[in-house]
Specification:
11 helices, alpha/beta, binds adenosine-5'-diphosphate
Length: about 400
Amino acid sequence: MNPSRTSLSLRVLLVEDNEDDRLAFRRAFQGSQLACEITECIRGEEALKRLRTDASSFDLVVIDHGLPGMSGLDLCKELLDNQVPLPLVILTGKGSEELAVEALKAGAGDYMIKDPGRGYLDLLPVVLPEVVRRHGDRLARKEAEEELQRINEELKNFVHVVSHDLRTPITFIQGYSSLLLEQYQDTLDDKGRMCLQRIRASARRMEALVSDLLALSTIGRVVSSFENISCGEIVSNVASDLQDKLGASGIELVVAHNLPTICCDGGRIRQVFENLVVNAIKFIGHTKSPIIEIRCEDRGDFLQFCVRDNGIGIDPQYHLTIFEKFHRLREIEDDEGTGLGLAIVRRIVDNHGGKVWVESERGKGSSFYFILPKDPTGMKLPVTEIEN
Ligand code: ADP
């Protein structure tokens, strides 16, 4: 509908071969508050010709089902095929479920029965503006969805291009600094070697940053499939990947036997466990008997997971900020961190309809909790349970 027009006026193209019905249709709007401008066509072919070139002159097309020649439903189909962007209403002498389905399939937004008592005529001034409004809403929603999809696609391409373009020079820097270190050992003095080692370490860090940023930017935008996955299996894969790091720090990993199977995006939830365990290893400090525990509790509609360590702990003043991007507490020498690990965890858990938080004190280890809904479709969070 032309947006400059008021909602109290309607331009209708009426396709009706019966003269009495055309007259009755006109009369239905006399005395109503709705100013209705009615253009008449007797045959479907005539209406099609007109609408192909002049659809913008109308807000709505009302079509009799039993037209001679091209039937009302055929006209609807033709209009749909010709992408005429107007709402279509079918008028029929007798209604049935099959006809209603056929009308909808043919592209009609609605259909009305011309009942013998002609009560339908009183409804026209109410129903037709509503049909136009609903059609406008549908179009606006479709446009917004298409726009969102376009922006998402653009963003995805942008992120890929940027990450690829950044990775190439980083790989060169890493490659050439390694080459210099290996092949020019004798020519370089200690200072030269140290400079090159720093260049190499910075390039490694840059690479980790680019890949974490890429991961963060795709969570939630890339639609992944949810399926039933065993958390026990996820955790055992993570543990075997991190075996060397755990062994090097003499850390015991204790995993509960009751880890459930949940409906989730397995790859992402694996990343959650991995990031939390990697952090637990990194921040274990110099504890005498380092231990990391992974447990799960049933909380009704939710499952509550916990990754606990007895490492350096976190001062309560940082319990919220550590989940923000690039927020790092510089308490230990750690060149590998990017400050994005927990931001990634939070985004993944949010996208599953869950919540993540930490309970910890300095020097007393950390417990990272996250809850996930058992049924990830349309869950509401138990706010009181998780606020702290
Ligand atoms: P990164 O580990 O790359 O620095 P994260 O987002 O994973 O970034 O973590 C942010 C900060 O939170 C870390 O720099 C660290 O200070 C703190 N942190 C995370 N996990 C732990 C933990 N298990 N024990 C102590 N501090 C932690």
